[in-house]
Write a structure and sequence with these properties.
The structure is a homodimer of 403-residue chains. Chain A is an alpha/beta fold and 403 residues long. Chain A contains 15 helices and 10 strands.
């Protein structure tokens, strides 16, 4: 296999490694000519995507419909929270069930453009699954490094897509370092989040869709669960591109939500620190948000601050409670990391970071079907009943007692 | 609670119960004035839905985006099967992860129109989950009767939506009868498939979307996994409405796929029997397709025969193998019942029921995340590795040996 040189990170900055392994020198993609008007074509169409993304030839796009997810009015949740202008961006409706498909779409398109046959990534689960799905649709090989503790649904899903899965006896951060070493050894294209700049660029399509759906109005704030901070940076990049193109007058505030056991970015935002302090023993029920050293801390802190946004920290208990609360008020079943957006919104309101009369969008980043074991902790599983009406009446009386 | 009279089944025919409990007298909804041209609005919009469905006031539609799922070209699967014109209708992209959301959308809209506060249903799992999601978004109560053996993901999901779940120690057919009795006792609106005529009517939107996406071409055949036969009847109703409206010149052939352990409809189609023979000990890995007495056998047999279609029977082994086969060739991860469509297509080709040069659509009815345990049976779960390059090399060599 021949060597394929690809510039992932800034050759100068990346040599200055921060304590704890925080990556420096993450690069940004600059699209020189952005559209000055919304394309007529729908957001999932090749015509729309190639006009905003660095994809020269639409035939390089994988044959799997990514994005174009609903921006939903949620009347019952609005009433419950006393917010008249709240929306959910339901990115759990992507093909592999998470917003990570947006990044994998672009990275896979670039692999096709460059004639690369193997893509590799480290992931807490969803990014690896997304890469496996997009690579399968395209006919490329995916090699994925995930913590062996990832929820079984994520492992089974990526294996079903045919990925070569390497469950790492270690943390996400161990998997991340190992994937870098393996890509260097085997000349694979690395899709690691915040390392390959096309991950941030791919995720910006969610911002484009939110703005296109709400135009001519703008959201005041977008609430985003964060691990490495790449979904946040992707949305920020989308809003920045739209501001540059003249399609929006200003950018919404970015409100970043992290679980208390893995809150490096939110803590830095709240403390006003210039950089993050890694959390070596990071842990949370929201597995997708667990990182010791957020890989995209630098750009994420810059973008959230530039937007006038803030960081919010939530407990695991509030995340678990938010899963059925969100499902019962909206009909959307979210994984813990995604339900954290609702827990974070309620915290942000309580802390005065978001006002009841603002226009707010919650990013729902992945489906609850990805992690049934965690969802089960938030509900009561009823006992089976015999198939007769008396048993029905007894069970109904019992369920009323429990409510 | 006052009595609410609602005509579910024909008062005359339904009294003539067939042996084994096959329901007779399923009613059909007739829309007197159908559109004679495609609405400008997208398929998920209230304007589109109210023009084809019996919903007078768009405000009665639940606030949850149902349908509008992708009709996908699948280049790698086309090449693998030697079929130049194959599409997948990916209905796993509905909000609760299955095509059943389409039926629940309409039944919930009717409940809102009529001022009903409680909806009940029996289900193998997906229909109950769909009802729970739509009822939650609307603010209605859902009471669901499911076999206690339903996959845990389906149970956890419907409980998260806040449904009152009654796991029945018995079969789907036991749950079905119990739900009828409970609705009669408590005056709930029953959403049972093939019993409430709006279930068939709601599912027809998948047919409308397929035709709208392919126009002016038509599919020659649509391959549909079947349990009770309601998805089949829903598609047939959609095609029939479009023929009546003049929007299509003829209807596609319906190819019905059933697992060998629950094949009452397919067997009747293959034998040329006027009716079905129930299978009291029905069983399959495709839990969504397991019914002893298909509730919609009469209309399903009529519709498949009128279309010039046929029945196909597949083994559980071929269904389990179809999950990773479909995922690896398309990037779509399907539950066993949905993957049965691919197994069925390959059988139909081998039997000469579908030709390689025909235009064919496969209905993918639910996501693989609904039943991880079954998907796991079709793949090999690798052992964890230590986070070092030597372990990566060893694992890669092992994975090559396995391939």
């Amino acid at each position: 296999m021949e060597e394929r040189p690809f510039l992932y990170v800034c050759p100068t900055c990346s040599t200055e490694q921060e304590p704890g392994g925080v990556t420096r020198g993450t690069l940004e993609v600059v699209i020189e000519e952005l559209p000055s008007a919304w394309p007529e074509a729908p957001a999932t169409s090749p015509a729309f995507l190639t006009s905003f993304l660095p994809v020269g030839d639409p035939r390089h796009l994988p044959p799997l419909a990514v994005g174009g997810t609903p921006l939903m009015e949620v009347p019952r949740l609005r009433k419950e929270l006393g917010m008249g202008a709240l929306w959910l961006k339901d990115d759990s409706r992507n093909p592999s069930g998470s917003t990570k498909d947006r990044a994998s779409l672009l990275v896979t398109a670039k692999a096709t453009e460059w004639g690369v046959d193997t893509l590799a990534t480290a992931s807490t689960g969803n990014a690896a699954t997304a890469l496996a799905a997009l690579a399968a649709a395209t006919g490329l090989r995916a090699v994925v490094f995930v913590p062996a503790t990832a929820p079984p649904a994520k492992l089974v899903q990526m294996l079903s897509y045919g990925a070569t899965v390497l469950p790492v006896a270690g943390t996400y951060d161990d998997a991340f370092e190992l994937s870098l070493a393996a890509c260097a050894r085997f000349s694979w294209l690395n899709r690691n989040t915040a390392y390959n700049p096309f991950t941030i660029e791919g995720k910006k399509t969610a911002a484009l869709e939110i703005i296109a759906a709400m135009a001519p109005e703008l959201p005041d704030a977008v609430v985003i669960p964060a691990g490495d901070g790449v979904i946040t940076a992707g949305l920020a990049k989308g809003f920045a591109d739209l501001e540059r193109s003249g399609l929006i007058a200003h950018r919404p505030r970015l409100v970043v939500v992290q679980p208390e056991g893995s809150a490096a970015i939110a803590t830095a935002l709240r403390d006003g620190s210039p950089g993050v302090t890694p959390v070596p023993d990071a842990a949370s029920v929201a597995d997708s948000l667990v990182v010791a050293a957020p890989r995209n801390a630098t750009l994420c802190l810059r973008d959230v601050r530039a937007s006038g946004g803030s960081g919010v920290i939530v407990t695991d208990a509030s995340i678990l409670a938010a899963i059925p609360r969100l499902a019962r008020l909206t009909g959307i079943f979210a994984e813990p990391a995604a339900a954290a957006a609702l827990a974070g919104l309620e915290t942000a309101i309580a802390e005065g970071l978001v006002a009841h009369d603002e226009r707010v969008v919650l990013m729902i980043t992945g489906t609850g079907l990805k992690d049934i074991a965690s969802a089960r902790r938030g509900i009561h599983m009823p006992d089976p009943i015999e198939p007769d009406l008396d048993s029905v009446e007894t069970a109904l009386a019992r369920s009323c007692d429990e409510v």
